[in-house]
Design a protein that fits this description.
This protein has about 250 residues and is an alpha/beta fold. The protein has helices at about 20-35, 50-60, 90-100, 120-135, 190-195, 210-220, and strands at about 1-5, 10-15, 45-50, 75-80, 80, 135-140, 140, 145-150, 175-180, 185-190, 200-205, 235-240.
Length: about 250
């Protein structure tokens, strides 16, 4: 595993890992390290994302040695959700449930899903208020201990796409989005919450992501890609990638 500084980004680092298991091990270290820094009996609040890369990493977390993560001290929230029922194959909640939750010992009270089956605008308001009630506030904005993001080849992250990049600067905690091709409605946390987190990590795998990773790390087309706006003001950003996604980053191989 190779650790590199991202010279174009303040307080940011790039971690290149050889396998999904190695990526899971690094993520586990971030979680346990962060939890150990919190006061006793304090929960570590994580926002998780959907997508094939987070799914692969989540499946590996329960395979790590017993006791690596104290799951009873973890609270799970969602970065975004498709507006579908929780048992729908497209549900981000369902993916996290099948790949992670069913394989760990985490209290049900520590799981805060977005209700994809609800009316989108109503649920967006509800979840935004829930974040404000359940999370500590910094600058009157909910503050996660860790936000886990995926990355699309179009530069989108969460459910903020290039065509609705304005959602990143929204004044609310959650917003209703729509997929640019299918029009499917989604509920997403906004940039103000992402950038208020103590730690943000992108999980990125695959050669098809190499071009967008290179562009984002180099600072190209800054205004075009929502993911380029991720810059935690009072936190740290980590790019956790496999070898294939990092292959075009100068000096990564």
């Amino acid at each position: 595993m190779r650790k590199k500084n991202a010279s174009a980004m303040k307080k940011h680092k790039i971690i290149v890992a050889p396998t999904s298991l190695a990526m899971a091990e690094y993520l586990s270290g971030m979680i346990t390290g962060g939890l150990n820094e919190l006061p006793a009996k304090t929960c570590f609040n994580i926002a998780v994302s959907g997508g094939t890369t987070p799914e692969a990493i989540f499946r590996n977390l329960p395979c790590l040695k017993d006791g690596t993560i104290k799951w009873n001290s973890i609270r799970l929230f969602w970065v975004d959700e498709r507006c579908v029922p929780p048992d729908d194959p497209e549900s981000n909640y369902r993916m996290v449930k099948k790949s992670l939750i069913e394989n760990i010992n985490i209290p049900g009270a520590n799981i805060f899903r977005i209700r994809g089956e609800a009316e989108p605008a109503v649920e967006s308001d509800r979840y935004g208020a829930l974040l404000a009630d359940e999370l500590p506030l910094m600058n009157n904005i909910p503050r996660f201990d860790l936000v886990i993001l995926g990355l699309g080849t179009d530069g989108h992250t969460a459910s903020i796409f290039p065509h609705n990049i304005f959602l990143f600067s929204s004044a609310v905690n959650c917003a209703v989005s729509a997929h640019p091709a299918s029009g499917q409605k989604r509920i997403t946390i906004t940039g103000r919450v992402i950038n208020n987190a103590a730690n943000v990590v992108f999980l990125i795998k695959g050669q098809e992501k190499a071009d967008i990773v290179r562009a984002l790390i180099s600072g190209d087309n800054y205004s075009e890609y929502p993911a380029s706006l991720v810059n935690p003001v009072n936190g740290d950003l980590t790019w956790l990638t496999d070898i294939h996604a990092a292959q075009l980053i100068k000096g990564s191989t």
